[in-house]
Every structure is written in C-alpha cells, then in structure tokens.
Amino acid sequence: MRRGACPSLAAPMQTGDGLLARLPPATMPPADWVALARAAQQAGNGLLDITARGSVQIRGLRAETLDLAESLVPSDWPRGALVMTSPLAGDAPDEVADPRPLARRIAAAAPLGLPPKATVLVDGGGALHLAGEAADLRLVAQPEGWLLGCGAAWLGLGDAEAALAAALLLLEAMAREDTRAPSAVARAAAARHLSPAPAPPAGTAPEALGLHALRDGLALGVGLPFGRLEAATLIAFAEASGARALRGAPGRVLLALGVPNPAGLRHKAATLGLITQPDDARGRVAACTGAPACASALLDTRALAAMLAPLVPPGALLHVSGCAKGCAHPRPARLTLVGTPQGLGLIRRGRAGDTVAQHLHTQEARASLAREFAADA
Ligand code: SF4
What predicted TM-score, i.e. pTM, was given to this entire model? Predict the structure, then answer.
C-alpha cells in the first residue's frame, strides 16, 4: 500500500484486528448494505465502522479472505473516494443545486496519478451541507453558480462548465506537481475561468443524527456507539428500515433515506443499541476495537466504554484505547484510559501513546473518572 493512501479492498491496511478496507460514502439500497454486512461476517471479523466522514470500513479481513470480500461487496459500490457529495445530494428540498452531475463529470475526467488522499467535495448545500468538512478542492453551490475553493483560498465563481474546467486544471496540477496543494501559478490559471466572488460564511458541521426532510419523504440518521457496527445489527437495521437507500454520513451516522415509519425505525434502532438521541452519552466516548477482536488489545474497550459513558459530561471526550496505538482517536482527549502491561493507564489531555499519569484498578475507574470530570465543573 502506498504510504498515506486510503485503505481499500485492493490495498487494505494492517491494523490490530487484521486487515481493514474502506469504501467511500455511497447511497445504496438496503440489500447492498446487507450484502456488505455479510461480506464482513464471512471475510472479516463481523465488525464494521462508519468513519467521521461517512465512509464504511470492513475490519478483520485476512490476506486469504480478500478475494471473497471483493466478490461479496456489491460490484456497483464505488471503490474510489476522490469526489464526495453531501449525504442528501439530490434529495434535500433546501439544497441550492444537485451536486451529483458535476461530481460525476469531475470523477470521470480526473487525471491519473493524483496524490493519495486527494479529495474534492461538491457541496449542493441544504440541511446536511459539507461546510465543516476538510477537502483539497471544494465546489459549493450558490444561487449564481459554483464557488471553487482550493485549500483555504476561494478562487471565484462560475457556471458548471467554468467550475469543471477550473477544477480539472487544479487536479491536473496536483497530479503533475505531486501535491495536494497546487502551486500559485496553477491556482491563478484556474481562477481565470471564474469571476471574483466573496468567500461564503464559515460553516460548522451539521448534525446528521435525527430526522431530515427529503423532497419525497423523510430520512432518519442513527449513530453508532463508539463508531462501531456489528454486521448482525446492520442487517437487522437495513431489513427493518423499509428505506429506499442507506448511506454513511459525517459524524459516524447511518442515514436511512425514504423511511415509511420513522418513529418505528427509531424505536427499532434503539432496541438494536444504536444511538437515536443527540444527548446519548455514548457519543462522548471514542473506543477502539479492543479485546477480544484485536490481538494487540490489553483491554475490553467497548465494555469499559459502555460502563463509563454515563459519567462523561456534555462537551467532554473520553478515549478508551486497548493499547498505546490509539486507533479510535489519534488526537488528544480530555481523558484517555489505555490498556498497558501494568494495567489501566490514565492520561489527562493527551493521546493514547503519551505518558501515563497514573494506573488504576478497573474497579476504581468509575470513581476516578467522576473525580476528574467533577474537577472541570
Ligand atoms: S488501539 Fe485498539 S484497535 Fe488499535 S491496535 Fe490497540 S487495541 Fe487494537
């Protein structure tokens, strides 16, 4: 696998619990999600993730099961992740423009040899817009056309043809210059296709959890405790949904689009252990796969995370990591509990690999956490 590239079925990534393959966010019928879950059961360890961007990961694959996984994952599920659209693209009644035609044209004409992890967002706007998401190139629908951003700079506004030409020019520069930040010369050349326009107001990520209006019905977003989805839970949710399609959405949310009975599906999701309310404390805990699925784990992370979640106050984050690798949350958290050969380590405002401030007995973890969070209040 090329360093920094996104893990895929063709080039999976080694993790503590086997090989991991990522599939980009895609709006697919429930039957395709059931097929994906069966692939996870038969070729992986039966665990899936929805990432912070809404991609889906199959975990616990092995070299000898990759061909089986490739044959079980629906063939029309997109494999590449260069161009992303908003989760309700084409369905949101309040979107400024349907981003899918422009996204398809960019994907079809993008040059080969782009740097790994290059991303283009085509954001049609609407309730689940992508203003909070990072990207190398960004096309944002405005009433007058498409506003093109490159990194932190906004280059200007044009109709779909002009925006397409400018975006392709930048992608060609990215491939030629082997960088995700094209040169000033390339940016100036792209801007010549566009008219000057003010930058849009800075946006924050919308909440995908809950009910959303569609042009022809309703969508329900449910959250995954600790970002993780067991294949059997996905199958039960997909089969009960009655939805036209399901899709991963930013914030580790699974969206069901076109649900005939949202209240019934929300109830079903809750009985399956999924998050249906924004104030669910499990949304404040990041936990990795942990024992027993991960060979490196020194901790049953998810059991500990479920026990401790009610103690985490709104606005705080607890990270429970089976070892110092910190797969679930590579950034600092208010508190991290990490499995170490000496027992359960506590780290304040750090990463799982940082120096442990003190070791706790598992039985003391609850009281210690309560004390730590009380000190913040
Ligand atoms: S952080 Fe968790 S999932 Fe990652 S290697 Fe360690 S125990 Fe395994």
Answer: 0.87
